[in-house]
Task: inverse folding
DNA sequence: TAGATAATTAGATATTTTTCTAAATATTGC
DNA sequence: GCAATATTTAGAAAAATATCTAATTATCTA
């Protein structure tokens, strides 16, 4: 996992909202964008950041581009956080 | 949990390294800073961001200020991530 | 093939963040 | 109280990020 990319991607509220919208299933860029008061160009930038972090997957369907969550990266991130704080049986974190 | 503050705090590699150093137990600002090629002032700024996010706690001990992890926020964050991605029994996420 | 629609890329600007130096505050020990 | 040490705060400069408009690419349909 590209740790830096993932954390950077998660740091923006618009991007977190995008991810939230994708919880219900895949959506086109336009469908996602409809919920935000932002230009398609800016939205596209956010998509690029999310893709860079491998948090979303894309697939062209004709004219549209369909975005969907890549759950495995969320799982990795959650696991990483767990490793980051000390707890019973895990004082120094793992290598 | 102040979601935005926490994610923003985690987005910087220096701050993540600071948190990592605190895994082994509480340290003074100076002890932490020794590992980074950065001025005390910049470091202090990072501490402020981490404190803002409630990821660390501080306690003055004489001349020194001792920093320690606030594990509960890590747990909250991990939980939040878990909620963010869909899985069996959790399709829409919770309110 | 031309026009319409969906989305991205390019380039510019505004905002935010990181970092620095210098000055200020808090505490210790003489 | 004064000098030394630890840390923070203030203010400025540099770097990164988010956003916009305009132009481009890809696809569909008539």
Result:
């Amino acid at each position: 996992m590209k740790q830096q990319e993932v954390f950077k991607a998660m740091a923006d509220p618009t991007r977190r909202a995008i991810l939230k919208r994708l919880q219900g299933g895949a959506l086109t860029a336009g469908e996602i964008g409809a919920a935000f008061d932002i230009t398609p160009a800016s939205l596209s930038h956010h998509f690029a950041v999310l893709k860079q972090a491998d948090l979303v997957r894309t697939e062209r369907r004709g004219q549209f581009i369909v975005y969907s969550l890549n759950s495995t990266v969320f799982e990795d991130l959650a696991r990483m956080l767990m490793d980051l704080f000390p707890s019973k049986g895990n004082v120094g974190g793992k290598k």
Q: What stands out?
A: The first helix of chain A runs from residue 3 to 10. The beta strands of chain A are 27-28, 56-61, 64-69.
